[in-house]
Write a structure and sequence with these properties.
The complex is a heterodimer of chains A (249) and B (152). Chain A is mainly alpha-helical and 249 residues long. Chain A is 75% helix and 0% strand. Chain A folds into 2 domains: 65 residues, no CATH class; 136 residues. In chain A, helix 2 packs parallel to helix 7 and helix 3 packs across helix 5. Chain B is α+β, with helices and mostly antiparallel strands. The model of chain B has no long low-confidence stretch (mean pLDDT 84). Classes of the chains: A mainly alpha (249), B alpha+beta (152). Chains A and B meet through helix 2 of A and helix 1, strand 6 and helix 3 of B.
């Protein structure tokens, strides 16, 4: 049996599917967040040099990861929309941008709160911090550019180009601590090497990252449903939806 | 067989991204020397640092080099990259993580006497996180010349 995936590339078919997926991902996000917070704050040991203050890592690192992952996914959707002329792909890119921007801001703010007591500075212009700030500007630029063009097709194209150009910044953020000497420490988790943190600490961080990921899916699906209704408000299926909703109430 | 329009657009996007990546690489390469947050004591020794203006030195605080003056605020210490060492004087409060043998980044200028006068001292910590007992065990093992695996 093969599933026809292209069926769900039409907003009409995807709208109810997204509605069915939301509660499941919300449930997963809740479970991961409860487990992650419990391990992070009740199980994980104190750090040998930073004491209890290191625990901000359980929010900071997952937020920073998500800020980069969401950007890549968003640019991927934008590229698909550009190449296939698919309406839904562009809507997905648009739906992801605000969440990406929020995680970027969260990573910057928690990093700042962590930097002051540990490094002795709220902010420094090293390569890691600067490139993450540029990521925030890319998200905000994408949102602003799309909002400033009235014709949705042209807005999608312009946004997609900006999103694709900005993709170069993601490997720069990730490898900045390797390529240049920075005040920000290197990665604790590397491919092909043992993680440089105790197992329970790592567990807490990964669970929090999963919780953030599931949360992202939930809010992106909710947002894309709104975008679909707004953009397709003149189409028959949206009209039928509002009629049936009116009959129920 | 003619290429489909959407395949053509995919190829164009891929080529565009590849060119963009190449351009970014070349630019970053050209700015390589400006992208560093700090210079190492070896670079200071070779004179590869900006002259006349301030810059940052990064490295480890030399063990047993930290001396406090009688005023309680001025501190003397040395920064090393294990090859060269630069003496530093700083008047102010040191960050909590400032420790001998640990990472540090100091901003300032080299004075006439060759001592680096710092206006700001930042602690640079590493990417290792573990409970104090594990750190203790690692330290003991290192002193005995043994290597241990990271405790779970």
């Amino acid at each position: 049996m093969s599933i026809n995936w292209f069926k769900y590339s039409s907003p009409q078919a995807f709208y109810p599917l997204a509605g069915k997926m939301i509660p499941w991902f919300a449930l997963l996000a809740t479970i991961f967040a409860i487990a992650g917070l419990y391990i992070s704050f009740a199980v994980a040991p104190t750090d040998f040099q930073q004491g209890e203050a290191y625990r901000i890592i359980f929010v900071h690192v997952p937020a920073a990861w998500m800020s980069m992952v969401i950007y890549i996914v968003m640019a991927g959707w934008a590229a698909l929309g550009l190449a296939l002329n698919a309406r839904l792909s562009a809507m997905m890119a648009q739906a992801l941008a605000p969440t990406g921007a929020i995680f970027t801001l969260l990573a910057l703010v928690t990093g700042s709160l962590w930097g002051k007591p540990m490094w002795g500075a709220w902010w420094v212009w090293d390569a890691r911090l600067t490139s993450e700030l540029i990521l925030l500007f890319l998200y905000l630029g994408f949102i602003a550019l799309q909002a400033s063009i009235d014709d949705p097709r042209r807005a999608d194209r312009a946004g997609a180009l900006l999103a694709l150009v900005g993709v170069v910044n993601v490997p720069i953020i990730y490898f900045s601590v390797k390529w240049w000497n920075t005040l920000h420490q290197g990665s604790s988790i590397n491919m092909g090497a043992a993680p440089k943190m105790a197992a329970t600490m790592l567990m807490g961080m990964l669970l929090m990252a999963l919780a953030f990921w599931m949360y992202t899916v939930v809010v992106a699906l909710m947002r894309v449903r709104c975008i679909m209704l707004e953009r397709e408000r003149a189409s028959d299926w949206v009209k039928a939806l509002s009629v049936s909703a009116g009959e129920k109430s | 067989m003619a290429i489909k329009a959407r395949h053509k657009r995919f190829i164009l996007i891929a080529i565009g991204l590849a060119l963009l990546g190449l351009a970014a690489m070349l630019i970053l390469n050209a700015f390589q020397s400006n992208m560093v947050f700090f210079y190492t004591p070896t670079q200071v020794d070779k004179g590869e640092v900006p002259h006349g203006t301030g810059f940052r030195i990064g490295g480890l605080v030399v063990k047993d080099s930290l001396k406090r003056q009688d005023d309680g605020l001025t501190v003397h210490f040395a920064i090393t990259d294990t090859a060269k060492t630069v003496p530093v004087v700083y008047k102010g409060v040191l960050p909590d993580l400032f420790k001998e043998g640990k990472g540090v980044v100091a901003q300032g200028k080299v004075g006439a006497d060759g001592i680096f006068v710092a206006s700001e001292v930042l602690a640079k910590h590493d990417e290792n996180y573990m409970p104090p007992e594990a750190a203790e065990a690692l330290k003991r093992a290192q002193e005995q010349g043994k290597t241990v695996v990271m405790p779970k």
